[in-house]
Amino acid sequence: MTLTDPLTHKATLYTLQSGVLPVYMSSLYCHSCNRRYYHNYYVHKQSSLRTYYGGVPNVIQGAQYFFIESALSGLFANGMVFGWDRLSASNWARIYNCALSEIDPHIANNKLAFASVYEGWNLELRNVDVTNGFFLYSLLLEKSERGGILLLPHDEPSQRDRLKPALAERKKAMEGIGQEHWAHACDLCFVIFEDADGNIMKLQSAHCDGDTIGHRCSS
C-alpha cells in the first residue's frame, strides 16, 4: 500500500512546554482503500465521516489549522473543573498567550523586523480554540475509556457543528445512572444506623457549591 496525493498547509501547534509552534500539516491518500489519512483520523472517499484511530493521541487536531497537545488540553480541563467559573475558555486563552506561548523574545519584541518569520501563521490562541480542543480531547478520552471509536461528520461548516452530535450523544449517555459514581456510597458519605425505636436509618451527606444542591460527595 502506497500513500500518495499529499495535501499540505500551514497550521499552528500549541504545546504545554514548548509554547506555540508554526507547523505544516499533511494528509495522504490511499488508492487501495480509497481513504485519505489525516493526523488523527481518516475519511473514506464514499463517506462523509471522520473515523478516528482510537486512543488519545499526544497531539490533537482541534480544527483544520489548529493542533493542541493532549497535555495542554488536560491542563485546560483541570482548570475549568477546579477553577470554578474563573478559568473560562477566554481566560485560559489569555493565560496561555501571556505566560505559556513562549515566542522567542527577540522576535516578539521586534515584530516588524521579523514579520516574515511567522508570516501566514496565527500564533495567538483563541477562546474557540480552547473550547474545540477541550471538547475533542474529552470525547476521545471518553471513547478510549469505553473501548470505542469516535466518529464525526466531515463535511460541516465549523468544528462546533461537527462536534454537536457527539457531545449530545455523550450528554444523553451521562444522564441518570450513566455517571461513573452515580451509585457511590462509602463510610465517609453514607452511614446506616439503628435509631432509638429500632428503625434502620441512613444518613447521607450532600453539598452545595453555589450552582447545584444535593450532589453526593465524599470529600
TrEMBL record:
Pfam families: CxC5 (PF18718)
Annotated InterPro entries: CxC5
Record domain CxC5 like cysteine cluster associated with KDZ: where: 3-98
Protein name per its UniProtKB record: CxC5 like cysteine cluster associated with KDZ domain-containing protein
